[in-house]
Amino acid sequence: EGNSPKAIESFQQALKIIGDRSAPFLLGKIHSDLSASYLVSLNPQDGAENLKKAISLFEKTGQKFQLAIVYNNFGLRLLLKGDWKKAEEIFAKAADLALETDHPELA
To answer: Which long-range contacts (C-beta less than 8 Å, at least 24 apart) are formed by 72-79?
Structure first.
């Protein structure tokens, strides 16, 4: 549901607005949401670089809740590609990260 093409356009515009400014959490969220929008539009390969950037940013900032979400989306992307074994590993990593948080949505 929703309007994935419009969401993708909006997230790309947000990245342009931020430019070279230091905003690791916000950039991580944008890249994470952009990759999810590509996933929903069934173009997961287009969001692969965004996933990598989101993972890198959230690892640097220690955002385990957000990192769990990104790894879950990464696992979904791998399922769509048919890489079941790697998806299982990534889902396990997402679950481990979720257990390390005390966020009510992941409890």
So the answer is: 73/32, 73/35, 73/36, 73/39, 76/39, 76/44, 77/35, 77/39, 77/44, 77/47, 77/48, 77/51
What does the alpha-carbon distance between residue 53 and residue 28 come to, in Å, rounded to a whole number? 7
Residue environment code for 88-101, b if the CB has 16+ CB neighbours within 10 A, otherwise e? eebbebbeebbeeb
Query: pTM for the complete prediction?
Result: 0.84
Residue 107 has pLDDT above 60, yes or no: no
Strands, E, within 37-103: which ranges? none
- Check the CA dihedral 82-80-45-72 and report its sign: negative
